[in-house]
Amino acid sequence: MKVKRLILFIIIITLSLGLLSCTSYKSMLNERLSELNTNNDDKIADTQFQNIIQSLENNDKEGLKKIFSSNALKEAKDIDGSIDYISGFFKGKIQSKDVALEVSDHKDNGKNTRELKAFYTVITDEGTYIVFFIDQLVDTKNPDNVGLYMLQIIKESDEEKEFDWGGDKTRCAGIYRPSIAK
Fold this sequence. Notes:
5 helices; Nuclear Transport Factor 2, Chain: A; alpha+beta
């Protein structure tokens, strides 16, 4: 009788340890996947940033438009005028940049979305700017939303009055222009 209890106890301990190791492995795997997504998000943000800057430097309106999602272009007010505004506003050659990212994932009734917000502080030989954009990385329900949704470039000195991470004050499709610039 004691031998049966001992064997049963050993089996329970062995199964418990096995389950714990699976949970630890799953946790480690999820952590690693999260790290990979973060590294990938950094690369995506830097690629979009380079595409934006290259389009501005080359005065390439069509190239800049191609970065935006088709729905953002439909919703945007005066995209051509906004591109002209921002092209004349951002000046100089980049000397340094620093970035902060925010990524949000949403899953709801079979609809998956992933949005990237990138905030760059950019120092050029002519000034310091904030380059902010919202990029819709995934939208399984409406693929026409995938792409750049919003772009904002302001002088760093105007951050307090013109910037809110694409919230109620500044969120718009296309290119943000302050009301005084309209």
